[in-house]
Amino acid sequence: MNQQHNIAHYLSAESARQPRRRALIFSCGRDGGGRPAYSHLTFSQLDALSDRYAWGLQARGVRPGMKALLMIRPSLDFYGLVFALFKTGAVPVMIDPGMGWKGFFRCVEQVEPEVFLGIPAAHLLRRLRPRTFSRVKVAITLGGRFGAWCGGVPVAALTGPPQPYPIHEPAADELAAVLFTSGSTGPAKGVSYTHRIFATQIEILRREYGIQPGEVDLACFPLFSLFSVALGATAAIPDMDPTRPAFVDPRRIVEPIIDLGVTYSFGSPTLWERVARACVEQHMTLPGVRRVIMAGSPVPGRVHDLLLNHVLEPGAETFTPYGATESLPVANFRGSEMLSHTWAATRQGQGMCVGRPLADNDVRIIAVTEGAIPVWRDELALPTGRTGEICVKGPVVTREYYGRPDATAAAKIADGDAVWHRLGDLGYLDAAGRLWFCGRKAHRVETADGVLYSVCCEAIFNEVPGVRRSALVGIGSRPRQTPAIVIEPEAGRYAELSANPARLQAVAAAHPLTAGIQKVLFHRQFPVDVRHNAKINREALAAWAAVQG
After folding, report:
1. Residue 135 CB neighbour total at 10 angstroms
2. Alpha carbon of 246 to those of 99, 270, 304, 487, 501: distances in Å?
3. How do residues 178-198 score in pLDDT, each as one tens digit?
4. What is the pLDDT of residues 209-219, one digit of tens each?
5. What's the rounded Cα separation, in Å, for the pair 60 and 307?
6. Is the previous residue joined to 329 through a cis bond, with omega within 30 degrees of 0?
């Protein structure tokens, strides 16, 4: 088989090709003069560190196929341990603890990890919930004596012979990792990733974004940075809380860009809007950054405009890959093309264009239905221009949810040896072959007069001066819901806008898409997803709206 199906081979190959180039740079506070300080590992050092940890994990009983839950903050050791797990053939498990402890514990019980790697506080949690973590046989702790007191072996104790670890050679479709969805639109589910899918994603990222060895990635989303290292680029980890990108200090992003020669970055659109606005206010540009890649929610044209026309250097580009944890990427779109070709239509309520599907993928639109569809039939596909549920088939489409045959049946459609994934998103394909996103299926509002789509309706209200963003919600049960629009004003504009709801009602009445929306509510700060701080939690807003009277 192709030895590169195991992502660990990419690290070893880069270690051989560019041993002294930095693989990781980690922000570690300030020096005595108040300047940013950094530590780093070269590719050779990272490869050797992961070998050492792999030998140590093997000595502690870690074997291929064992599921390993990570509750570790981004650090140099985090990357060494992740690559060590791949080398041993263990299966990393990633869960967002920010989803709330009830949901988190449900995920742990679903996947039943046998290896636990965590900070001391995580080990205390494990001791307090012994039934939830009853299958754990190997526990590793990072930092302090507290974790050892809770039963974890210090990471420093993971040692082995000073020689390369024999990397596990998996079958291409062997389970490589379980990555949980954020739970922003329903209970979080573990997505089963195979080695083949990871290897395919690496090559797609190389092709779509032209990432080359020697580049520097400002890794504002830690999981993406694993791909950067595999591609031979340097991953620079900024001084930020990755669980709160919407509240990042822009200075902590700008400083490493200037200090380290960053050439591209992947991050939440809320993070990049915050950084871009700060740069504009301070008359700053970001020299050397050639690409900004944003994902996690629809990226408004204003964010692309700020970056392309005010912050980045001429010739730079912004990108918005579209997809889901279960299938990523599905499509890719350049910010320059959005601004010149589709943004005007988006502002008029035609949906958010997410670009053309990648050549690797086949995308179709099917009628909206809640029931399972066991087998694909070509007649399911709707014609061009019709709105329905987006489905994708291709080499990055995962085949199942871990331990959830019910969820798998609801989201997957068999097509011979292949599988279609139902994204739970609504949209349509236009005559040019571009894909347009109209909102989540769960967020459609069904009234007695027809169906309203969140992204399309919200675009009309987002044009009103003083409105930061809006959210369409339905009050009551389908198919006779009462539509309401919830407005989040810009900073300092709440009193002004909320004192005059008739202004927003007039905006609604003036457009055919929104003429049936009479209820206007105001909310100071929308609840958002825990991963990117970008997706609006419309379920929570709908519950809130229902009791506002």
Report:
1. 15
2. 16, 5, 17, 18, 28
3. 999 987 667 899 999 999 999
4. 999 999 999 99
5. 49
6. yes
By three-state DSSP, how is residue 111 classified?
A: helix
**Omega of the bond leading into 97 within 30 degrees of 0 (cis):** no
* Helix or strand (DSSP H, E) at 480: none
Confidence (pLDDT) at 31: 87
Q: How many degrees, rounded to 5, is the angle at CA 129 between CA 126 and CA 131?
A: 110
CA distance 354 to 331: 7
What are the distances in angstroms from CA 458 to CA 107, 363, 380?
Answer: 33, 25, 29
Neighbours of 11 (CB within 10 A): 26
pLDDT digits (tens, 9 = 90+) for 102-136: 899 999 999 999 999 999 889 988 989 999 999 99
Q: Pull the structure tokens for residue 90.
A: 């263990």
Alpha helices, H only, 352-437: 405-411
Bond from prior residue into 489 cis (ω within 30 degrees of 0) = no
3-state secondary structure of 458: helix
CB 426 within 8 A of CB 439: yes
- The correct answer on CATH 3.40.50.10090 for the domain covering 350-441 is no
Q: List, in sequence order, every residue forming a beta bridge with 266; answer none if it has no partner.
A: 219, 293
* SS3 state at 225: helix
Taking 80 as the threshold, does the pLDDT of residue 144 lie above it?
A: no
pTM given for the model:
0.94
3-state secondary structure at position 189: coil
Rg (Cα) of the chain, in Å, rounded?
Answer: 24
Q: How far is CA 98 from CA 33, 468, 528, 532, in A?
A: 35, 25, 11, 11
**The two three-digit tokens of residue 538, written as one number:** 């419309």
CA triplet 276, 280, 283: central angle to 5 degrees? Answer: 130
CB 92 within 8 A of CB 111: no
Architecture of domain 36-194: 3-Layer(aba) Sandwich (3.40)
Written as one letter, the residue type at 110 is: Q
Angle of helix 250-260 relative to helix 269-281, nearest 10 degrees? 80
- Cα distances (angstroms) measured from residue 247 to each of 97, 405, 466: 18, 38, 20
Query: Which of 121-130, 138-147, 519-528 has the largest mean confidence?
Result: 519-528
Which residue in 390, 326, 387 sits closest to 357, CA to CA? 390
Provide, rounded to the nearest whole percent, the portion of the chain with pLDDT above 70: 97
Yes or no: say if 453 and 366 are a contact pair by the CB < 8 Å rule. no
Domain ranges of the chain: 36-194, 350-441, 444-546
Superfamily of domain 444-546: ANL, C-terminal domain (3.30.300.30)
Q: Which of 218, 229, 233, 227 is nearest to 271 (CA)?
A: 218
Structural contact between residues 86 and 109, judged by C-beta atoms closer than 8 angstroms: no
With beta carbons less than 8 A apart as the criterion, state whether 85 and 168 touch: no
Do residues 177 and 198 lie in contact, with contact meaning Cβ atoms separated by under 8 Å?
A: yes
pLDDT confidence of residue 148: 55
